[in-house]
Predict the structure of 4'-phosphopantetheinyl transferase N-terminal domain-containing protein.
Amino acid sequence: MLGEVLVRQTIHDMYELPMDEIVFETEGNGKPVVRQLSSFHFNLSHSGDWVVCAVDDAPVGIDIEEIKPIDLAIAKRFFFQRMSIRIYSHSRQNGRKPISFIFGQ
């Protein structure tokens, strides 16, 4: 709901369209689009108390994820021992950042 309001306000600010005249439709893949603005692309993401919106004149994507404490013991179930050791080691040195460490490489 808040994401839709954010997109409507953005469109209103950029194109001076009345917010109640902005019509959203759904493409075949389920992605929402704005009927009146074929070159307006947007993407929303939300997590916890946060909502983010990206807009562009080309397809765009954005993602946000609330950082929560994780149980590092689960690494033993899904990673080889060598990677598990790296995760534990990095976590002790850098606090709660083991996932960004893995996927950022």
Remarks:
- The radius of gyration is 20 Å.
- Helices lie at 2-15, 75-78, 81-94, 98-103.
